[in-house]
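User: Round two. Same drill as before: sequence, then structure, for each protein.

Assistant: Same drill it is. First protein:
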Amino acid sequence: MKRVYVNEEWCLGCHLCEYNCAFANSGLKDMAFALKDKEIFPRIHVEGDDKITFAVSCRHCTDPICVKSCIAGAISNNDGVVKIDKNKCVGCLTCVLVCPYGALAPGKDGIMQKCELCLDNVCGTPACVAGCPNKAIVYEERSEAE
């Protein structure tokens, strides 16, 4: 299955992946209107320091612990894509505590959100991948050993 991977050595720490993600998931057609002077809630986050930066997003684990730990049953694994049912999420943050990658965060309304590979958006590829100027973020299939 294709997943989002980050090549840390190419990441500039520019945060454009975050802005492209927030825009793609805003449901709006104008990026300036969607994001200007607003707090953004991207589903990918740039972490790091002055020596190395990298983007953190959901790894869509084969055996996701967030699915097992969700007390509301809001997180599911559908054909390898881990998704959150926003109508079921109660915002308890249990998934945040158990995710070993730090891939989940509350959105504007307190409901949890995470990368869902832009499958519900019309992007074709994840917005973070399309918007990365240095091609540090890729959407590809890799073997389990990598």
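Second protein:
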Amino acid sequence: MTNPRLALLHPYPFERWRELTADIRPNADLAPISLGIGEPRHATPALIEQALLQALPALSGYPATAGEPKLREAMAGWVQRRYGVALNPATQVLPVNGSREALFAFAQVVIDDTKPGATVVCPNPFYQIYEGAALLAGARPHYVASDPARNFAADWDAVPDEVWARTQLLYVCSPGNPTGAVMPQAEWKRLFELADRHGFVIASDECYSEIYFREEPPLGALEAARALGRDDFRNLVVFTSLSKRSNVPGLRSGFVAGDARWIKPFLLYRTYHGSAMGGMVQRASIAAWGDEAHVVANRELYRAKFAEVTPMLAEVLDVKLPDAGFYLWAGIPAACRGDEIEYARGLLAQYNVAVLPGRLLAREVGGQPNPGAGRIRMALVAAPEECREAARRIVQYTRQLTA
């Protein structure tokens, strides 16, 4: 016997894409280029590598789940510098092994599945961990309709009051995956009002916050709360990570911050779950959170790639520069035969370029079409020359289809 809730899980998008392309033999005359997986591929900063190596003696001891005080202080210090928000490192900050595992685990702490109709609300399209976390916690996901005319912004007013009344947890992602949209202050105000009225917790996924294309950095949830006088950050927990910011996806390092009333039980859960961050990783993370020079350099690499590639793709696709993040969320021409899955399959077969079909990142709800239909997600994480070459192939392929 296995946990029956496992049967509720949808195949992960990349697993589903492998199934959908198992019969394809890509054009071997062209070097493969993957824009499908959002895995940072820029070089890891030397200061992080050096800190990791210098911390080898930490392997001889068990790490504390709460993390070293210096690590929590480094994380709180970064929040202060980045958002102008003061946190208590002892009660309002907790290190985690990357935002992905924390986003999943947090639902297991928040959800009370003894209450009928326990609900987790999330945007649509969305990061699949939100859905899986809800299902395995014994809650039902509610997918919020999005408006393509507003960069797929979630229509929170479309959620019925009876759904909000059952909601225990709301996942938001800003900057968003896959759209790159940043939530403005007015939207945060609306969500805080809803949370106060109905008593649910907001989990804000902000792992893309340091890759942006305007001079003003993206607004964060803690920053938005402070601007509204919500200095206790009630029912708000923010999740962030070094993976994208510092190009260390293999380090599995991030933190959660916010309402101390939720950080405390989350720490208790993690203590039993055995999810302490290794001592070496903690020391390397202290170095990473304390340095901004490598973050600025990383951001400039993305800005240069997007500035070059986006206009090329805009010649044939419905695409524009996002607010932030490293994805392009592009619509394929209506003249293309078939849907975006067939488009992506043909692109892989003929031009050896992998992208992710949009419908794999979203759900059909209430008879409404899948909001990812007709769109593809492209992660510009490869080297600049690879991104340029991929764009050239996509342009050629699309023109071939629409000729």
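The chain is about 40% helix and 15% strand.

User: Perfect.
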